[in-house]
Write a structure and sequence with these properties.
The protein is α/β, with parallel strands linked by helices. The protein folds into 2 domains: 244 residues, P-loop containing nucleotide triphosphate hydrolases (Rossmann fold, 3-Layer(aba) Sandwich), CATH 3.40.50; 67 residues, 2-Layer Sandwich (Alpha-Beta Plaits). The chain is built from 12 helices and 13 strands. The protein has a 6-stranded mixed beta sheet with strand order 5-6-7-3-8-9, sandwiched between helices. A hairpin with a 7-residue loop joins strand 1 and strand 2. The longest helix is centred in the middle third of the chain and has 16 residues. It is globular, with a radius of gyration of 24 Å. The structure holds adenosine-5'-triphosphate (ATP).
Length: 351
């Protein structure tokens, strides 16, 4: 849950800085070392709830870096500590070399924050909101450019209360960028959007990165992290359970490959016999008419060549791709909680 102190209008964009040292441009954009954050426990309990424990990662300039994990994993708490919105209990946090606790003003000038549940007055229009927030900054982004970048120019006179879910999300990204930040923190920005609006938002995030903004993307959507992030940390129960590029993480779990295929019924037995004898094949299973072949990285090539040699033409050949979800299951030993995903696309939440 976001607890960003809202500026005028109740939105969730960090307030501007008016003073403070210039951040160190040579430092990594984000550095988090052994971050720990606790909250008060349930009423009457002396125990504190550990929300984040020993979290470390760093983000390089120009990356889209993901913080992925199920609900309650500690993602928002982590980025709130980074943005200077919460005080950590332990560890160090640096944004462009600056400690957000020691110098919140310097950090607020370089980071744009789009936290969950941005809320503006129902009657304020898109353009009014952008111009209002731009007025908080000494050197804001160009509002017209932002309207174009976020595909909002045609909706500039539409009141916030009349925007669709996708349009509201695009406005919240625009507001996070209005201070012309070098780093943007985007928290669960596609929750509540339908698949088409979600994909459109991904394209916008890439467009923003292409303008030179480093992006910290908080998400519980596996597909989103896999599609958008250059690197990511997977957080569960407040701890980092995996870290790397999506491809590295997926490869680290299991190096085997699986292919599914169908062959004409007359060729079925010969196909099974042929495939079971291949050096690159570890396992052949049959499910109804579908043959599933698991083996080395070369298994697809081996299967196709062996069938061709027997003059068997498969009706259908598919590779079974592994995902970050497989990584999560492998590193935590439990399934990923999709409850939030199911509730994530209410009616009318599209562009
Ligand atoms: N202000 C708070 N007071 C007490 N506990 C809190 C507070 N904020 C968060 N928590 C708890 O800390 C843990 C981490 O919450 P956090 O919001 O950081 O997780 P998250 O991964 O961002 O999940 P979500 O996407 O659901 O917000 C959760 O158990 C949550 O209930």
């Amino acid at each position: 849950m976001s607890t960003a102190p809202p500026p005028a209008g109740g939105a969730t964009v960090a307030a501007p800085a008016t003073s403070g040292p210039v951040p160190d441009g040579a430092a990594p954009v984000v550095e988090v070392r052994n971050l720990r954050k606790t909250y008060p426990g349930p009423k009457g309990s002396p125990e504190r709830k550990v929300a984040v424990e020993d979290v470390s990662f760093s983000v390089e300039r120009g990356e889209i870096f993901g913080i992925l994990g199920p609900n309650g994993a500690g993602k928002t708490t982590t980025v709130e500590c980074l943005a200077g919105l919460r005080e950590a209990d332990g560890g160090t946090v640096r944004l462009l070399g600056v400690d957000p606790q020691a110098d919140p003003a310097a950090v607020r000038d370089t980071v744009g924050v789009q936290l969950q549940e941005a809320a503006l007055h129902e009657k304020i229009t898109v353009e009014e909101a952008l111009r209002l927030f731009a007025s908080f900054y000494a050197a804001p982004s160009d509002v017209e450019e932002l309207l174009d970048l976020l595909d909002l120019a045609d909706h500039r006179r539409v009141a916030f209360g009349k925007l669709s879910g996708g349009q509201k999300q695009r406005l919240s990204i625009a507001l996070a960028l209005v201070g012309d930040p070098r780093v943007a923190i985007l928290d669960e920005l596609t929750t509540g959007l339908d698949p088409a609006a979600r994909r459109a938002t991904w394209e916008l995030v890439e467009r923003v990165r292409d303008r030179g903004v480093t992006i910290l993307l908080v998400t519980h959507f596996m597909e989103e992290a896999e599609r958008l992030c250059d690197r990511l940390v997977v957080i569960d129960g407040g701890r980092v359970v995996a870290q790397g590029t999506p491809a590295e993480l997926i490869d680290s779990v299991d190096t085997s490959r699986t292919v599914r295929l169908r062959v004409p019924p007359a060729d079925h037995d010969l196909a099974l016999h042929t495939l079971a004898g291949l050096a690159d094949v570890e396992r052949v299973q049959v499910d109804a008419r579908e043959i599933e072949v698991t083996g080395t990285r070369r298994v697809l090539l081996a299967v196709v060549l062996a069938l061709a040699e027997q003059e068997i033409v498969p009706d259908d050949v598919r590779t079974v791709t592994r995902t970050l979800e497989d990584v999560f299951v492998a590193v935590t030993g439990r399934t990923y909680d999709h409850a939030a995903d199911a509730a994530a696309a209410p009616e009318g939440a599209s562009r």
